[in-house]
Amino acid sequence: MTKPEIDFPDGPPPAEIEVIDLVEGDGDAAERGSTVEVHYLGVDYESGEEFDSSWSRGETIRFPLRSLIEGWQIGIPGMRTGGRRKLIVPPAQAYGNAAGHPLAGKTLIFIIDLVSVG
């Protein structure tokens, strides 16, 4: 897959996490305790500004789900390899109101491609 484009959202940010499958995968499914390898793009809901992207670095990233923000721990399980999923994550499931964190208090949009589960 290629780096995703994110359409600018319409309306106010959601109060609850939204999980939207853009492409259904047909490989192994991620589970709550899985280690996953992903490509992802993250943007600020309000401004549309990209704040992070494995695509921009040119390589996937691999990590245990338990070490990620709550929005990813909720939004990735059940996803199958080869799939692409959009997560709209309110502040409470992202970085909360952590003082000094640049993403504190922000609703975030992620497009995640699940490359492998291990």
User: How would the global form be characterised?
Assistant: globular
The SSE string, one letter per element, is EEEHEHEE
Q: What is the name of the CATH topology? A: Chitinase A, domain 3
Q: How many domain modules?
A: 1
CATH architecture: Roll
- Radius of gyration from the alpha-carbon trace, in angstroms: 13 Å
Strand content: 25-35%
Number of strands: 6
Helix content: under 10%
Summarize this structure as a short list of keywords or feature phrases.
single chain, 118 residues, mainly beta, Chitinase A, domain 3, six-stranded antiparallel beta sheet, 2 helices, 6 strands, globular, EC 5.2.1.8, peptidyl-prolyl cis-trans isomerase activity, Peptidyl-prolyl cis-trans isomerase, PPIase_dom_sf, rotamase
Please characterize this protein's 3D structure.
By secondary structure, the chain is mainly β. The chain has a single domain (18-117), classed as Chitinase A, domain 3 (Roll), CATH 3.10.50. 8% of the residues lie in helices and 34% in strands. It is built from two helices and six strands. It has helices at residues 54-57, 70-75; strands at 18-23, 35-44, 50-53, 61-64, 84-89, 108-117. Strands 1, 2, 3, 4, 5 and 6 form a six-stranded antiparallel β-sheet that branches. Strand 2 (35-44) and strand 3 (50-53) form a beta hairpin. The radius of gyration is 13 Å and the shape is globular. The two termini are 20 Å apart. The model has no long low-confidence stretch (mean pLDDT 94).
